[in-house]
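Figure 2 data, in text form.
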Amino acid sequence: MSSSEFILDFEKPIRTLEEQIESLGKTSNSSKVDVEDELGAIRKKLEDTQREVYSHLTPWQRVQIARHPQRPTTLDYVERIFTDFQELHGDRSFKDDQALIGGPAFFEGSPVMVIGHQKGRNTKENLARNFGCPHPEGYRKALRLMKQAEKFGLPIVTLIDTPGAYPGIGAEERHVAEAIALNIREMSSLTVPIVSVIIGEGGSGGALGIAVANQVSIFENAYYSVISPEGCAAILWKDRAAAAEAASALKLGAQELIKFDIVDAILDEPIGGAHRDWDFSATQLKKQVKKDLKSMQRWGREHLQNQRYERFRNFGTFVENAPKKDPSSEA
């Protein structure tokens, strides 16, 4: 998948070299001049530049890659690794939320329930999808599908890609916080395997509302955080321009998350990000989902519940200091 339509600031030196290669190639074809030596030198420089840039990405740069408009979405992955996907709509109460999609499908010949956040590819699509920010009815639809999966004994696969749940007045009026809290509670007690993969943005409760899973994986340039870098900067620095500093402080990258046992595995991306090669990224996702589901094949219902509950209860570390005794009180 070409990403030439959108270039991040730190990728400009790479794009300049790519343009030189394209220009020399056209010149060679039109004038029949041999430019292989020049092309070889530029290709070598391009490889070195890519290696240098992408091996030293800052947390903020990884956030930018996670938000790349050409990054594969839930539906892009569904198309590549699932078959016979049947999207189901509506929460049976208010309306259908297109920012969160789901339905039954087949994975490796076995039925599963697939649920995920869905962003648009252009302005029109993003408006329809609310930029991947679900309303409460989206989470209620997701819970309806999860309950259906439990009824029929289907494993649940959720794909996470949202800046966060929509914080607008309408969402608050329809109790978005309650909808997310209910999903968290109900997911913790489901008796079928749940696998979650963070494919792009994993923002706050908007992500956690469908991510209370037995196994959670993340793509290497995705992020998972209690708040977006801009939101954190606005609160702590009083300036959204401090987003890069906030991204570093939040420890939201894949390497930090696996170190703190927040995620279980990191999925490789092609050099430059998942948007550079959708098929490679889909293959990585398929391998991880297959591995996770296979590991849970023999788990009983009670073990699935207990493992999921303990997984989230064990997040974070703390030390309790017993209050010091007053020596005079022992007299």
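Caption note: Residues 64-313 form a domain with the 2-enoyl-CoA Hydratase; Chain A, domain 1 fold (CATH 3.90.226.10).
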